[in-house]
Amino acid sequence: MKKIPVFLMGCGGVGRYLLQHIVSCRSIHSKLGVYLRVIGVCDSKSLLVPMDVLKEELNDEVLSEICIVKSTGSSLSKLGALEKGGYQVFNDSESRKVTEEIAERLGKSTGLAVVDCSATMDTIEVLMKAVDEGCCVVLANKKPLTSTMEHYDKLVLHPRHVRHESTVGAGLPVIASMNRIISSGDPVHKIVGSLSGTLGYVMSELEDGKPLSQVVRAAKTLGYTEPDPRDDLSGMDVARKALILARLLGKRVVMDSIKIESLYPEEMGPGLMSVDDFLNNEIVNLDQNIEDRVKRASSNGCVLRYVCVIEGSSVQVGIREVSKDSPLGRLRGSDNIVEIYSRCYKEQPLVIQGAGAGNDTTAAGVLADILDLQDLFP
Ligand SMILES: NC(=O)C1=CN([C@@H]2O[C@H](COP(=O)(O)OP(=O)(O)OC[C@H]3O[C@@H](n4cnc5c(N)ncnc54)[C@H](OP(=O)(O)O)[C@@H]3O)[C@@H](O)[C@H]2O)C=CC1
Ligand SMILES: N[C@@H](CC=O)C(=O)O
Description:
L-homoserine binds at residue 226. By secondary structure, the chain is an alpha/beta fold. The chain has helices spanning 13-24, 26-32, 60-71, 92-107, 124-132, 149-155, 174-183, 197-207, 212-221, 230-233, 236-248, 275-282, 287-299, 327-330, 359-372; strands at residues 2-9, 34-42, 46-50, 87-91, 113-116, 136-139, 162-163, 188-194, 259-260, 302-311, 314-323, 335-342, 350-355. A seven-stranded mixed β-sheet has the order 4-3-2-1-5-6-7, with helices on both faces. The chain has a six-stranded mixed β-sheet with strand order 9-11-10-8-12-13. A hairpin with a 7-residue loop joins β12 and β13. α1 (13-24) packs across α15 and α8 packs across α9 (212-221). 42% of the residues are buried. Bound molecules: NADPH dihydro-nicotinamide-adenine-dinucleotide phosphate and the ligand N[C@@H](CC=O)C(=O)O.
């Protein structure tokens, strides 16, 4: 049986679903001759590892308990399993050093898949170290790939060792499809897409007459939004996805070169008020303006969509009025659509469409990425 040691950073909505999928897929993986050995889980405050990461693992009972404890907002240090012994918990000041030591120990021996299901820039240094040590890296987190070109180049230095399907379109095979097109020498001229599950859901609910404030709160509850929904409403999350696609096409694009349209004003920004304040008190002040825009679009036979267009050296993201009868206009709920135009897909683009957000589908994409690395493990 091939064993893949897995180290998970981030056990929020996506990370917890990933652990559940790992446990529930044991028999499927067994038939494939693969076993995922989870040897570390960390959140923003602590790291949990077995006493000996080379020989031991966090067993399925512990993984299930992690899911329960984290879903109540509690800390990893509150796990009942710790009382029985056999595990170590490190606090956040020790966590990075210990993680790097594990990457060093396992990277060049058993191999290690370092999986980033956090939503922070803070994992970049650990990921860089992991790449240096020969580890594989799997990302749902878009931030490391949308940092500087230097960070990006380093992360993708060994393309076979990196998977990040869930960074664009959640579980949809967008990156895999693009990689196939690119490696066959078919030049991609243009990509047009609706890449935000949250904004797709918001726009189609607004069409049904619901207020923005209500649908954004619902999108958060459904697990579509980023931890701070302003990351979605500002267009930043779409811009990150667009940047990842542009960089995949070999364009040396940086975030500052992308013009991004925000659905809220600067004075409601993260530096000026908390997420709770924004969602409970301020967002309601945006309801009327967006309702008027939706009505104006409707009077033109159109709907609003938050669209991304990548063409030549230009990357644009923002709200557009699109015909109700167009593929973008027909999109409903959290579905994403990506249209890829290339030499082979010239008049009729290659179209990828389906659920573009949600913890379950995103975690499924991450799991498929880990399995896709199996040939690199002894
Ligand atoms: N939800 C979706 O539909 C999709 C999400 N993604 C991406 O998946 C990622 C996770 O999203 P989601 O699960 O919703 O986010 P959550 O906010 O639910 O979870 C984030 C997790 O990361 C942990 N964390 C924060 N800082 C660090 C750190 N420095 N080191 C390790 N862990 C850390 C948090 O810890 P703590 O528990 O202590 O707060 C939390 O467990 C995001 O990057 C998101 O963009 C991608 C595609 C779709
Ligand atoms: N917040 C994102 C989640 C996936 O990347 C979205 O709404 O699309």
